[in-house]
Write a structure and sequence with these properties.
Strand content of chain A: 35-45%
Oligomer: homodimer
Shape of chain A: globular
CATH topology of chain A: Pnp Oxidase, Chain A
Distance between the termini of chain A: 13 Å
CATH class of chain A: Mainly Beta
CATH architecture of chain A: Roll
Structural class of chain A: alpha+beta
Number of helices of chain A: 5
Radius of gyration of chain A: 16 Å
Order of helices and strands of chain A: EHEEEEHEHHEEEHE
């Protein structure tokens, strides 16, 4: 077991946060990644926007979450989240479900037979069926000011006025599971 | 000459925006990249934070610029900028100068013998001595709300209360020059 891991957790292989930038960007922009949080229960959603950046001399995963989302309340209150990246298309069905249903109405882990592996640095699980994981602590957040956004984008992506909060999560851990 | 280039410009090799994610992130976080703008004159600064992300189904280069910077006024008013990435350490001296002096006081292109190659999609030059370039159009911008930032980061990086505006620039072109 990795000495940096909490006792009782599965062993993982810690890697540099930037080892899989290409894969993360590809998955984000093509099929999505899992954004997981925990408030009253574990919950996950599919995220297709955002990315890994470098701010304040530390790696930051920027994740945009609409203020109407169940996930939003969890991250906004707890200040922690994880991102789990599938490296192939096997989880297509789970992604379709998790990307279209709300955690208000479903236990998505149960519905999709997803395994919640305990996080090692934050009290949020990662998705056992994925291989690549990021554990993050929010160090900055800001909800979009609509008037500062390009009009075409506003019309196309925010018809319901459900703007995003950009959560800037410092990457506390990045690792692979089997 | 590339058919997508304005007549009279040097030929370039257009590449996918995500071909050099690793290199951009490495240069950003280790030595910096050139952030170039044009208002009354061409000007460039060195940027060490930010990154390439994916938002609104398009590639977005997020560049943070302090509101006190000469560059800030140019980007804020014109809505366009370029990022030029050196792929080695040859430009160390120019980076030291451009990263510490203000465009208010110097013509940095002249002082550092930098070549301003005309942009192909935006009216801002790229730095001829670099190899990798991004031309960007701002589609969203927002100045940081200090109260939403981690206290430690605020203390360490914003002693002068000179907070950043995050400029979200859609990548209109990405290419290599020789």
């Amino acid at each position: 077991m990795c000495e940096r891991c909490y006792p009782g957790n599965n062993a993982v292989k810690h890697i540099p946060y930037d080892q899989y930038l290409d894969k993360v960007n590809y998955r984000l922009s093509h099929s999505g990644v899992f954004l997981t949080s925990h408030k009253d229960k574990d919950n996950t959603m599919v995220m297709g926007w955002g990315g890994i950046t470098w701010y304040w001399r530390r790696p930051i995963f920027i994740v945009p979450v609409r203020t109407t989302r169940y996930t939003w309340h969890a991250i906004n209150e707890t200040g922690v989240f994880t991102v789990s990246v599938p490296l192939n298309d096997e989880l297509r069905e789970a992604m379709a479900f998790c990307g279209s249903k709300s955690g208000r109405d479903y236990d998505k882990f149960k519905e999709c037979n997803l395994t919640a592996l305990p996080g090692k640095f934050v009290r949020v699980p990662v998705i056992g069926e994925c291989n690549l994981h990021y554990e993050c602590k929010v160090v900055f957040k800001q909800t979009m000011e609509p008037s500062l956004l390009d009009g075409g984008i506003r019309e196309r992506h925010y018809k319901e006025h459900d703007f995003h909060t950009m959560f800037y999560g410092e990457i506390a851990a990045c690792y692979l599971t089997e």
